[in-house]
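Two proteins, back to back. First:
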Amino acid sequence: MGERLLLRALRSGKSRTVILRGKKLQCIPQTLAKLSLLRVLDLRDNLISHLGPGFSSLTQLAVLNLGNNIFREVPKELKCLKSLQILHLFGNKITTISPEVFDGLDNLILLNLNNNKLACLPPQVCRLKNLKFMSLNYNQLASIPRELCSLKKLSELHVLHNQLTALPEEIRFLTNLGKLILARNQIKELPDGLCRLRKLKILDLAGNQIHVFPSAMQELQLQELYCEENPLLQKRPLYATQIEEVWTLKEITARFIMDQLDENDSVIKNSIKYYPEARNMLSQGKECPVCGKHFLSIWLECVYFQTPNQNMKISKNANCLPIKTLLCSYTCFKNRGPGIYGIV
């Protein structure tokens, strides 16, 4: 049946779309390689496990659907498809991706790898410079490679139902990300870098292990936030535990310098220009919300509860969002306002 459809396409000489969905194909028909002008190829719902060598001749192909077949790895022949923009590989048995696959997919915009058995992504995913939509739902990913965060054009990332425990701090570089789906993972803490995604509008964190949100969470301009089935902190008094009780010489020096810089001390401002390592270290400093003084790495972790924006669509359990805040000392903890609670 598949061969007859292809012969019909060959006779026309200018066929740009071939749909062979659900034809029980076990291999790619050889005559397919002769359709050099082919733009759209749908081979979904078959029994294909590999692509033949002639497949690489389809250099004009823009849309390829290989969903619901029996591939165990992403076919290496795909790297020859220089015009490919949309690639569906959902519902296969893919466990690995060869790094070389990404070499020729410069024009890829959409990649769908849902419902596979991927445990990791190769760092070479960063070569998909034009990728805008990536879906990795229902896999076995334990982490997101930081290299993925260099995909500047990525606007949607779906990683539903995986095994993520954390996100890379480099996620802040996904500056065009508008939709991030992380539901049903094992994430315990969100990185501060997430709060720097100014275009993020939809964030789904349902079914994770999150207790408290990052301190800069209120800077996000979200339209939708889903966080049900997380052990979010409730609004009740707790105790604060200090990470370290004795200040190090590094901490004392850093606090002094940051306070002087805050007061526009010209001598220190001019001097610090010549010490890039010290400048980088001081850039990680934090400001105490109680006394306004700066500190580097010794703090008490506390929480305050923020009422979400009324225009934002949000989970029913999130009437007050627990937001992390850091105090510089027990003295400030004792002098804190009534809205700040300690965390054990």
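And the second protein:
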Amino acid sequence: MTSKIIGVGNYIPSQTITNLFFDKHHFLDENGQSLKQDNTTIANKLREITGIEERRYAQKDQVTSDLGFYAAQAAIENSGIDPETLDYIIFAHNFGDVRFGAIQSDTVPSLASRIKHHLKIKNNFCVAYDVLFGCPGWIEGTIQANAFIKSGIAKRCLIVGAETLSRVVDIHDRDSMIYSDGAGAVILEISNDEKGIKSHLSASFTLKEKDYLYFGKSYNADNCPDIRFIKMDGRKIYEFALLNVPGAMKKCFDDSGYSINQLNKIIIHQANEKMDEAIVKRFYQLYDATVPENIMPMVIHKLGNSSVATIPSLLTMILKGELPEHRIQEGDIVLFASVGAGMNVNAIVYQF
């Protein structure tokens, strides 16, 4: 017995933010000094390293739970189920609902509870809770849902990943250009056939790596020092990911029992195109193999890094035929993988 995906959905905000948006920003380093490069050079370097040309921002009247609700609605409609039959609603995010122009995060009640309310679910035994696990949060929520299903306490779960990172960035930090908003969701259901989750893996590296991603003050010393923004040590994250993620992916894939030539797609968290390419290359090197063509779909160029939303949103786009160069067919083996704040790493092998 395992669990399989019976419905997918996403919500991609309509507000497109190109790299030109940042042309008038005053970027500073961590010491508060102006960067030497002009903003055009900074934007071109960002595109060269991360692949990001555009990203999406939520509308001013939207918050994270709104985006998650839209994705959840789409997944429920795609599955054709009655939402009253859901046993769990698991919402992966990291910063709660942050209203436009505000400096506070709102997480009470939980965002999962808000989605359940908006879905008008009357079933009191549909349990709604949130997961905070960095960018790998949606995969972790899916792993938890699978555990509930395999244990017999649930038959059907909704797992949502949504974020509005545009609300928690320091406008004086060039790393703010990476982040975006979005949402994705899936319905997971009990399965007694060959399809579904075949293996999974999770790990948290905290002894030395805990603060590679953190909340810190603005690089502008004139701003209130008590207001915090998302910050990262990009070099250390890059080195950490290349050192630890390929091996974790291999362990998870080996546990599935498949051979490397049976793998059809790798859907990986998209924070940096070059980093993802290097991770996948090292993963295949562990098998003394070369990376197959078209193995890793990428949408970071147009959607940026939307944290927990990237993987379920990308999966939805593929299954709905919105990426003509990428298809997932019945029987295909897909490896999902993510890395992020914590530092957390996880992976799932899934047969469609």
